[in-house]
Protein 1
Amino acid sequence: MEFLTSILTITIRAGTSLTVATIGEILTERSGTLNLGVEGIMLMGALSAFATVFYSHSLVLGFLVAIGIGGLLALLHAFLTTTMRANHVVSGLSITLFGTGFSSFLGQRLGPATNNFRLVGLRAERVVPLDSAWIKQIPLLSAFLNQDIITYSVYLLLPLSWFFLYKTRPGLWLRAVGEHPQTADAMGIDVTKIRYLYTVIGGMLIALGGAHLSLSYTPGWSENITGGRGWIVIALVIFSMWNPARAVWGALLFGGINAVQFRLQASGTSIPANFLNMLPYVGTIAVLVLMTWWEALSKKVGAPAALGTSYMREDK
Amino acid sequence: MRFLFEKRKSTSVPALILVPIVSFLVSLVLTAVLLGVFGANPFRTFAAMAVGAFGSSHGFAETLVKAIPLMLTGLGVAIAFKIKFWNIGAEGQLTMGGVAAAGVALFGERLFPGHSLLFCALLGGLVAGALWAGIPALFKTSLKVDETLVTLMMNYIAILYSEFLYYGPWRDPKGYGFPGSRMFSADAWLPRIMGRAHAGIWVALALAILLWIVLKRTRWGFELQIIGASQKAARYQGIAVERNVVLAVVLSGALCGLAGAFEVTGISHRLQQGLSIGYGYTAIIVAWMSQLNPLAVPFVALALAALAVGGDQVQMMMGLPASMGVVMQGLILFPMLAGSLFTEYRLNVVRTEQKAACPDPVKE
């Protein structure tokens, strides 16, 4: 039981950044905007949060800066895809390419002179998970409770975003814009405004996920800290069929894969480390194929119908 | 006053040429601002970059060294994007091409005597890249599995696999712990033309022209154009969409695989670290800046290679991070994306007071 609890604790910790970012991307895609810039935004979020905390010693400020940067990058994507009608795929890829390059550039430039202007290898204040002795005595449940504040916010965010999307009027508007912008427009919903709004909110959450990586999950900042997590997030959105309530399962699954990989590596298995490191990527492909296959069989379509298309009223 | 976008009857040719050039200039200005913020003199930096990339025969040869893989992967990405198959797996296809070519060169010496070894190594790389791209293509056409994710995930798998090989079973026992295979026999070396630049440049240029002819002048190219414009329309025309998509993507992967094979047979002469250094991602920029036109690819590839070589130069001379070049490459795409609207649309400024007189253009 203790072993299971410890695995579950690591799983939830690893799954936190994935879940926050997945909810962000679900909100974005529900508006019809496909944002493939997740990896780049997470990288910039991780970098800006770490650099801010290193210099200001304020965790709150670190998260706020990351959220702001994420919002700005998403705003750029919203401008390109909504106003300039650029291709969603290529615009998102540019954000990722830019974020990857720029975060690595800043990571070699923003550090203190004593560390050769690098940020790598430095220590800053961290978000500490709750570590209460008496909670530890409760098996399994303690894995959920002995977590940090971001994980706790995810516990809140999950039901709230589900409720918002399916039970409120603005949630209905959001879904309408993603499904059929023409109809939404005719109903008097401002398609452009909605797309801007939720792409930016989505970008903020995605960056928050990145910030969680550098401020809590790993012991500091390193180049390419996400290691493809941004892309796994995009797979998780498909896996959860654009429903925030299901986002948690996918994130737990991938957090679990990480935990197992970690455990196996620590136990000194004969499987070469490179093959163990392939697990999350092979897992993503497998889940994606199974999920698509299942969707085709059950004739369920999860994706918003207008996903990845720019809406232009003049076009018709 | 209101701004309205009106669809052009045909794509504007001046816009098609101007937009990439203006984008390049805008990215220069943005980078200059960035350099200024970090206390470096932008003009001196750009001058150093230009001198580094073109100022000496060594610099120019290094620019060519980077341009060759960018041309091939750029062509590969362009043909896949043409049919709206978002292949972002060029990096993995290049890596697998390099791995396969190295495998043939290392273990095929007995089987393929003389220079047939080089030929078979290149062929091996080509086939490996094609197969690596074939997997997501089949997933896409048979089950509609999202290709962006599968191609990208396969990059990580390919890179981890190549690392496994050169750190593990293929590692040179006499290499003093250096992560890499032993050197190929000279039969598998691609001839060089200038510095480290190798004969692959001629192949890449020939393929660019060939691909342009195929896309513009053959029936298959025409079918691909229709599929790219609308899969539905293509089906009504009786075009075998699935088969053509798989063929085009396999061709795309083959070009990337060949790029990898050239890297190991032309540059490193062994499988080692540094095979995958991001050419496959820069290829996306190459393809998009070329507006998916194969004839434009060599020029854009050369320009982006010059940025990368210039970036390295700046790192050595002025202590700026080499990722400066990557940042610049990333910055080119944003103005490019914003500007491409003008190739398809015309901007109309409508004065508000005129609105009463003429019918609302929205409702036409």
Note: Chain B has two domains: 1-40+321-364, 50-319.
Protein 2
Amino acid sequence: MVIQIIYLVIVGFVLSLNILDWKATNSRPDALWSTVSTTELVYVYLFMQTLALCVIFPFLAGSTISRERSEKTWALLRTTSMTPGELIRGKFFALLSQGVFILLISAPLLVMMTLLGGVALENLLLEYLVHVVVIAWISAVGVLSSAITKKGAASYISTPLFFFFPMLAALNGAGFTYLSEKKTITSQLINFHASEPKAFYLTISVIFISGLGSLLGAIHLTSPKNSVRSLPTRIGIFMLYGYAAIWFFVYAPSLLNMGGDRDFLILAFFAGILLVPLLRIAGAGPEVPLGIRQLGRDKPIASRLLVLFTPGGIRNLLFCVLIILLFIPAGMVEVGGTLNDPNIDLVTATAGVDFLRDLYFSVLFWLASLMALAWFLGQCGCGSILSASLAFTTHLVAVLVLTVLKMRWGIQGWPAYEPGLGMISTPFNLIQTSGSYGAINFQRGFPSYFEAGAVRVDTIFNIATFVLFTVLGCGVSLVKKMPLIAVYSGDDGKLLLDLPDTAPVLDDSGIEIDPSGADDSESGSDSQVETSKDEA
Amino acid sequence: MSLSGAILQVRNLSVSFGKIKAVNNVNFDVERGVIHGFIGPNGAGKTTTIRVISTLQVPDEGGVWVNGQNVLTQPDSIRMNLGYMPDHVGVYAGLSVHEYLEFFAMTRRIYGAKKASVIADVVELTDLGDLLDREVESLSKGMRQRMCLAQTLLHEPDLLILDEPASGLDPRARIEFRDLILELRRLGKTVFLSSHILSELSPICDSVSIIEKGRVVAHGSIDEIQTLMSQGKTSFDVTLLKDPGNELEPLLSQLPGFMLVMIQGKKFRFEWTGDVEEVSKVWELLSTNGFVISGISKKEDNLENIFMSLTTGEVQ
């Protein structure tokens, strides 16, 4: 109802402006009103529509599941026959249909405007399609945000945090396009496609991947912890990254050839999309979900075939490494454009290609090193979020401290942390470098950055730390007597899979039922308690 | 499959929230076709246990089987055969009662003619006929409870899990709800309901489990628990025609199994250990010695007495 009122206000506002404008510019007796002002008003309306979508929809989407929880309907839904996938799909399409409904409210008015000239109907329809895509993306990410937060109040805080920067960027872009350029987003996208088709497809695919990934993440979060559903979810994550890797493989030569900031931007981007989700996967708990254990017991061959996609033990790390490996072929691609450029001599061009490729591998191995640290922390008992945060923060602080030490006091013996060179290993620096000329100038202060083979030293360091943390994690696993690779070890722990033969046991008086007869309130393993807390 | 005739089997069940052990090594069975009361003070672990049974909560230890299926490994199958009613009935604003039931029928994958048929059946059973067009938000608590019970019955489950169904209902609604539960038992359903309103459970429950501080302190039929609690002793209150003075205790103490508990004027209470049939020896001895009995009553432990005896009222 509130949304409808807001939209009616917007429609009324646009209509009023039209009438006022018609009265003011009634210098054309042959036209009902000025086609120029009609066009502008449509753009104003489209901007306001974008504004409303960006402000209202994150809150609608971000509270979709948490509202069910707070209104006590979520438990009822979860005991029905609906799977988590169906629930999330239903939430997503419900939000999408609300969005389309909102768009349709204003559609008649705008379509009528096309009769007056200035705006083509097909352009308007395409613009509406763009807005539908925006709604779909916000809905997908919002459902994920809502699935993450357990309480309604938290969701209202987390939703703006989720959307603040993307929405700010979207509104900035929409305002520039509609109000300053007086163009539609569709026309800007067409221009983008014409000038940089590969980057265009990359952008589109990223929107698609992030939206689909959000929905998969929401399904995973709403699935029972002990469910076997984590297996298809990991396969889905692998396929999404595989898709991204293929795109990167196809367009790597041209992307790496764009020079300047773009090299770092692309690397930072891939570091970003790999870093956050994979750190959480690597740092997840070492326990094997019960459903997976049951699969290992009942279908050992299938379980072995899918071993890398099953959670728990060292598989959490191996899965992340597998995904990182997907991106290696892209780094192997020849940078043909640079080599064929007649203005650059072959030696310089080859050196540039070598440098970029080394840089690329350095970033990938840096990611692997961080994954190993997160995995080690996960083995130690930290939760996935804590492990990911600690791993990233530790690495970032270490790099910065050691770089400062090197710069200030010229301390030798930090092969991996050459000034500038070590900084490459942080996405913070990559983003900063790509985003500001000042950062590039800052970086140029370190001559060793461009020294031949310097980046390879960084790679060696990252490989070494990867091995170190992997070995340490294995050691922790041995000490804690946790299975590293086994999916089903014949021991179901204290969770009973099969009904024991024993009937309920009464004590001597026949009243109290307690077979163990002991208060083992401290006996629950940490991993099992963790599982329970997540579900609670 | 189930190893016994029990529809619900709980074994070594433990659930913790941080350092608090909400459910601690709980064991019990519920037989098919009975009304089973799950009794305990607030914070005893009733709702946590119910959430595990209803596939909403993963335990830390142990297991729960419904119809021989494990809630951990076969939750989807269990949900097909289980109706769950939470302690607070959530409703979707803007829906009518009929739309609410239609929605939940579809979440149970019931469509078309079958949907209309099962909705008609549950509406008749729960007496919701006059409320079908009412908005769910406008319903009273009792009506909402009936509506929620109706949605739990849509897929014709064998086992109904009702968490505090009588909580917050007025006396009339409670009686109506109790009659409804008895009707469900007559239809062959097994009803597992938690409550702390013992007077509601006592007349309808075939068996009970009493839980306190996460542990089951008693389980069985009310008669069984009474017998177990009394440890073979039966209490009788006797009223004589005139005050026996000090003569009573020396006279009756010679009978094996007799123990005088209390004497007050013409009334006295004693405990009889052994076969209740042999308590007639007391009456005979009294008559032989000139005492005229004007009244005898066997002292019954009702559910409230049992509950108060077994629980301390402490919470975790």
Note: The longest helix of chain A spans residues 346-380.
